[in-house]
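Q: Convert this sequence to C-alpha cells.
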Amino acid sequence: MRGSRTAALLSGLTAAAAVALTACGVPPSDVIEAGAPASGMFSPSATPPSAPATISLFFLRDGELTPFPRRVDDARNLKAVVRLLFEESATIGAATATTELPRLTDAPRVAIEGGVLFVELPGETAPLSRRALLQLTCTVTYAASPIPTAVPRADAEARGDTARRPAAPSSLQVIGDGWARTQSGDACPVPAPPQEQPETPAPPEPSG
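A:
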C-alpha cells in the first residue's frame, strides 16, 4: 500500500510539472514523464526515521537570507521540513524576521527524483518571488547538508545532529496552478562558522 501511495503522489506531481513547464515554454522531456515512477523514486517522508536534529529555516532579515535554527524530529524527512518552513512563515513576527513565502490554504505536496525536489503548492497560489524561492531552496539544501550552528560539536553529536542525512537536492522545482519555478542550491549563502570564544586568562597569583 505504501508503494502505491508513493507512486500516486509522484505521478501526480510529475504530471503537474510537465503541464506547468510546457506552459512556460520548457520541453516536457526536461522533466520526469508522468506514469510509472522511475527506479529510485521515493517520497521524502518514506525515509527511515532518525534522531532529532537542528536544521536552519531561512527567513529574511533586512532583505537578506538569514538562517534560524530549529529542532526537528527527523531532518531526513524533507516533506516535514518544507511544511515546517511554511508553518513558521505564517506565524513569524516582523520584529524577528520577514518572509516572502505565501500563506497556504493546504499543506504542500513533496516528492524527490533524480536529485530534484518537487514541491507542489495548493490552490491558486501565486508564483513565488526569487527570494521566496531561495528561502525554500536553502532550507531544503541545508536540511540535507547541515551547516555550522552555535551548538557545540560534542553536544550536537550527543543529541544526534550528526546523524546521516540524505544528499542535498541539486535543485528545487516549485509547481503551482499553471506555473513552475526552478532554483539551484548553488545560490544559497554559506553561513560563517561560529566564532570560538577565547578562554578567560587566569588571574595572576599574588606576590609573596
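The CA atoms of residues 65 and 91 lie 18 Å apart.
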